[in-house]
């Protein structure tokens, strides 16, 4: 299953000391891809650019650099206009010209891994395959982004054999060797199979070798309306090394009620990499949102942790305030910011889906 990395070194990333850092660990930058595929948000594209402007502002306000992927000079010019109107300091933003199909960079962007092994700390990129969530036809440009970023930053590129497909939204980690994922997404062999023929142990082997994860918490179900068939970043997230938040539905008539209850029950039986039980905190689901009769994957779990803030999707829902309060208690060292995402989620994703963190190298 393991292929040599691009420079010919035979050892896997794990064997060279690399691991996937937790999202709350220090960032050098956040990557986004400026929106351009109007088909993702029918009739709402103008408001989507403004949401992106608020996201960049929320990240940059804490002193974090934002690296923005654009496809042309015209796209860069348009993005600069939106960011200027939002009050973003131009010095906080850096543009990279790479063509993309769509702007959900969490799923196809670079999976940065960090090693602190001698002789010095270093970053590399694990380049997992991307195939449009095993559902959509326009993905070939997106699949090239990790390699393009590696070239631009002068980083090593680790490539699993056979083009192993793994979207960034399909996993979440605590930086200590435990990853949470769903069986619906990564083990599915019938609806949207990413890696046909691979079984649980095969998938776990890749997660171990390329992300340094020796422990995987498997939840059975994703949320209703999720066109990825089970991304965990709409469902369950680490907020500390031993603490997870997980979505819960109180309405017994809702399709999410039984699956989310099963997820919570299973978490209660699980153990972290050190054998301890995780602390599990539930977040409420917002009221269902629909577009043309199709349920949207509106979920508070799709928040993004930057250096100084936690950006949380809100949906003009009574549960918005309760959720922001819970997350404020869990992140006392960061400003918790609600960003209205009713229009954004029309594209079947939210704030975590449009961001990708680049870890910072540890300071001496």
Based on helices, strands and strand pairing, what is the structural class?
alpha/beta
Run of helices and strands: EEHEHEHEEHEEEHHEEEHEEEEEHEE
Instruction: Give the terminus-to-terminus CA distance.
Output: 36 Å
Number of domains: 1
Helix percentage range: 10-25%
Strand order in space, largest sheet = 1-5-6-7
CATH class value: Alpha Beta
The CATH architecture comes to 5-stranded Propeller
- Please name the fourth-level CATH homologous superfamily: L-arginine/glycine Amidinotransferase, Chain A
Describe this structure in words.
The strands form six sheets. This protein has a four-stranded mixed β-sheet, covered by helices on one side. Strands 4-3-2-19 form a four-stranded mixed β-sheet. The relative contact order is 0.17. Helix 1 (45-60) crosses helix 2 (73-85). 22% of the residues lie in helices and 23% in strands. The protein has one domain (16-359): L-arginine/glycine Amidinotransferase, Chain A (5-stranded Propeller). The chain has eight helices and 19 strands. It has helices spanning 45-60, 73-85, 105-108, 145-153, 183-186, 200-211, 257-267, 319-330, and strands at 18-19, 27-33, 65-70, 93-97, 111-115, 122-126, 156-158, 172-173, 178-182, 215-219, 236-240, 243-248, 279-284, 290-291, 294-295, 304-305, 309-314, 335-340, 356-359. The protein is an alpha/beta fold and 364 residues long.
């Amino acid at each position: 299953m393991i292929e040599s990395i691009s420079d010919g070194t035979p050892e896997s990333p794990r064997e060279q000391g690399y691991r996937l850092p937790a999202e709350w660990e220090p960032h050098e930058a956040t990557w986004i891809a400026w929106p351009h595929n109007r088909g993702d948000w029918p009739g709402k594209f103008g408001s989507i650019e403004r949401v992106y402007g608020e996201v960049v502002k929320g990240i940059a306000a804490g002193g974090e650099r934002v690296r923005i992927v654009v496809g042309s000079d015209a796209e860069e010019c348009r993005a600069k206009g939106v960011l200027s109107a939002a009050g973003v300091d131009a010095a906080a933003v850096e543009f990279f010209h790479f063509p993309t199909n769509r702007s959900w960079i969490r799923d196809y962007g670079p999976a940065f891994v960090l090693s602190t092994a001698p002789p010095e700390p270093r970053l590399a990129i694990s380049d997992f395959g991307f195939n449009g969530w095993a559902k959509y036809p326009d993905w070939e440009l997106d699949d090239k982004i990790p390699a393009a970023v590696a070239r631009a930053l002068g980083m090593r590129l680790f490539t699993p054999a056979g083009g192993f497909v793994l979207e960034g939204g399909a996993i979440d980690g605590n930086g200590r060797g435990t990853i949470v994922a769903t069986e619906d997404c990564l083990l599915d062999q019938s609806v949207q199979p990413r890696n046909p023929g691979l079984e649980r142990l095969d998938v776990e082997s890749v997660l171990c070798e390329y992300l340094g994860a020796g422990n995987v918490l498997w939840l059975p179900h994703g949320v209703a309306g999720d066109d990825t068939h089970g991304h965990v970043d709409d469902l369950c997230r680490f907020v500390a090394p031993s603490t997870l938040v997980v979505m819960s539905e109180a309405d017994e008539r809702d399709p999410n009620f039984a699956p989310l209850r099963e997820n919570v029950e299973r978490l209660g039986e699980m153990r972290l990499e050190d054998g301890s039980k995780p602390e599990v905190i539930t977040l409420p689901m917002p009221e269902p949102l629909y577009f043309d009769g199709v349920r949207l994957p509106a979920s508070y779990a799709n928040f993004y942790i930057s250096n100084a803030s936690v950006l949380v999707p809100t949906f003009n829902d009574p549960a918005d305030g309760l959720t922001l309060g819970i997350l404020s208690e869990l992140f006392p060292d960061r400003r918790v910011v609600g960003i209205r995402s009713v229009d954004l989620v029309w594209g079947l994703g939210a704030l975590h889906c449009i961001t990708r963190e680049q870890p910072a190298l540890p300071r001496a």
